[in-house]
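agent> Task received from the user: take the single chain below, predict its 3D structure, and emit structure tokens. No templates, no multimer pairing.
agent> Plan: (1) validate residues, (2) run structure prediction, (3) serialize to tokens, (4) report one or two observations.
agent> Step 1 OK, no nonstandard residues flagged.
tool_call: predict_structure(input=
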Amino acid sequence: MKTECNSRQLEFQEIGKHRVVADFEGGTITSDAGALLLQEADRTGGVLKRFAACFTDHRKPGQIEHSVEQLVAQRVIGLCLGYEDLNDHDFLRKDPLLAVVCGQQDVEGRRRRRSRDCGAALAGKSTLNRLELAARDGGAAHRYRKIVAHPYRIEELLIDLFLEQYSEPPEEIVVDLDGTDDPLHGNQEGRFFHGYYDCWCYLPLYIFCGPHLVHAQLRRSSCDPIEGVIPALAMIYGKVASRWPETRMLIRGDGGFCRVELMSFCEGRGIDYVFGLPKNSVLLNMLAPVMKASKADYVAGGPAVRRYADLEYRTTRSWNKSRRVVGKAEYSGEGENPRFVVTSLSVAQADAQNVYEQRYCPRGDMENRIKEQQLYLFADRTSTALFDANQLRLWFSSIAYVLLNLLRSVGCVGTEFAVAQCHTLRLRLLKIGALVKVSVRRVVIHMASGYPYQSLFRTVCVNLRAAAP
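)
tool_result: status=success, residues=469
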């Protein structure tokens, strides 16, 4: 008698006399058991609860199945785990481990009001989509947008979470500014064509301090490069000065941020700055004698030669006074490579070489942080039609970054992953297969015995628990 073929099984290459078949009927098995570490990381700063407090919920309490905190946790943790689309949550809502991490007590979804939702403990894509649309004006009178986001609270929260990373006031903090392109492939609200990036895009502004995200703002690409910078820095400076009155601030940015209004803002508050300065004929003439000396050393048989010069410079119209400019006169096989930065640092604080190499150049590391945001936490997934909803998506990715950074800076301290990027943390610590068993009193997660980083996982868990309040 012929064996009845199961169309749901997949046939693979045989191993000796053994057939190899597979299906998706393993039961309550998760591929994201490491999300338990995200739950522990969240406990160290109460990130998700405080983020949820930045929303006002106008829904009728008796009809709520998923609180704002659970919705926010589901969306943010989903991004941490690598699930960028809301469509993914129509399957993830059935994962009991994700329900545990999001604080849903009915982890198997047995007590859902509608029978069609039974077995799915978490919210589906439609409910999460309404959360994202909360960035628009809504309220109790609106039919769908009854959850309202408060942008100012979210911006303050990011600054507070950054300040809390320090156990004692630092002597100095270095704040990096940068804008980047966020390409668009639809007719999103506020899109414009940017000639430099040669595409339709947004132009988000990021502010980091080392690995810590301090500010994330979505902007139209038609905006001035410093749009939103001064209000953001004013908010950051106000909180830093009130909490750490003795701490010095240094602001860094490329040539797009070299504006007299921004420099005057910093000078008026005692904030130091180092900004790239676009070269022009006047600056090149001022640097010419030093460049000539660099060329002579190179022609004499030396390797690439760098010399630095202190210059006093003022534009004809835009600048209100003269400022210190550091010029780099580099000569190599490719010819001259002059570069300039303008700074408020005095010669006594830092000589010309120190200003350029130690104070300005390290800002390049910020590019890695932006890459983590956009490539690995999907901050560029701004495909919603509405601008405010896309801003909220950027904030979801920002909170996901903050959560993973807590996992890295607190949980992985003293390990090889203390400086790992977000996608490495995801692959090594979060993507773990596990069998989930739910009983009346316990939820037991049996993680894969072949998981190769068991010792690291235990260390990270211990570190996070020790740091929790």
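agent> Step 4: summary for the user.
Residues 29-143+378-384+399-467 form one domain.
agent> Done.
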